[in-house]
Amino acid sequence: MRCFAHQDREAVGTCRACNKGLCPACVNDLGHSISCRGDCERKAHTMNAQVAQSAVVFSTQRRNRFFGPAFFVAMGVGFILFASDGKWGLNLGTVMGGGFVLFGIILGGLGHRYAKELADKA
Q1: Residue stretches of the chain with pLDDT short of 50
Q2: Whole-prediction pTM value?
Q3: Which end of the chain, C or N, has fewer beta carbons within 10 A?
């Protein structure tokens, strides 16, 4: 690959922001990546900040993936218990509670499957 600005020189890498080939004279080392000088520098810094933020969100999501399903299951059980009045019949509270429990189980299964797929890719 050739440098975008200097066609007679070999490129040492590509700009993170615009993906153009860069020679040693054009490259700007940002520590985390390389970029063209000027506007591409700001874009590359922004992209790196977004990647870092995504890593934080991903690690938090991995730890907290059980809270949502557990909340829905607990709310469903609460609805069922408070709506039953000591008798086990179908009423609005038991149907809603069953829906919450079912949704919590499905949400937990999907979250587990998603986390497993991400772990397999890593």
Answers
A1: none
A2: 0.53
A3: C
